[in-house]
Design a protein that fits this description.
By secondary structure, the chain is an alpha/beta fold. It is 39% helix and 19% strand. It has a three-stranded parallel beta sheet with strand order 1-2-3, sandwiched between helices. The chain binds adenosine-5'-diphosphate (ADP).
């Protein structure tokens, strides 16, 4: 059976938390699609195209990993691609409540779509794109939390590079 999975998110920008999930789980599927979601009117630090480039550079060695972007419902993207699996990462129990609601809503919208939850590596639990941007804005060192290309892009957005 040819099994594809979607790993959707904002990835604004990608962190070592996201990359860890991709590294650990991509090999379990034939095709692993990192799906960058973007919504009109929402404020992102990076455009969807910029996020796509940043992720692609970090997954180029994983042959079955594709990076795509989509504005709209993930359930619609899954339907058009005939994909019935969706992956979400849980940072311990913190994400459980909101991620459960999201999974249930996706199931209500598309009964074939199953969500698989995977646990973040404990040492990366504290990483979120939001916090990284906040730390960088205030001059903190983010090199432990994001890949080098992401760090350089954040720093140049803030005019520190
Ligand atoms: P969204 O806005 O859709 O939550 P994110 O880019 O914040 O998008 O996250 C995308 C996915 O990656 C989500 O499943 C989220 O739980 C997971 N994720 C985010 N940060 C980490 C991390 N540090 N470790 C593991 N998974 C993470």
């Amino acid at each position: 059976m040819n099994k594809s999975i979607i790993y959707p998110g904002s990835f604004d920008p990608m962190t070592f938390g996201h990359l860890d999930i991709i590294k650990r789980f991509h090999g379990h599927y034939d095709e692993f699609i990192v799906l960058i979601s973007y919504a009109e009117g929402k404020n992102y630090m990076f455009s969807a195209e910029e996020r796509l480039v940043l992720i692609k550079e970090n997954v180029k060695d994983f042959k079955n990993v594709k990076v795509d972007m989509f504005s709209g419902l993930t359930t619609e993207y899954a339907k058009t691609k005939d994909i019935t699996l969706l992956l979400r990462g849980l940072r311990g129990s913190v994400d459980l409540e909101s991620e459960t609601s999201l999974a249930e809503m996706n199931k209500a919208l598309s009964s074939e779509l199953e969500t698989q939850f995977v646990l973040s590596s404990p040492s990366l639990n504290c990483i979120s794109s939001r916090l990284i941007k906040e730390i960088a804005k205030n001059g903190g060192d983010i090199s432990k939390f994001v890949p080098p290309n992401v760090m350089n892009s954040i720093l140049s957005k803030y005019g520190n590079n």
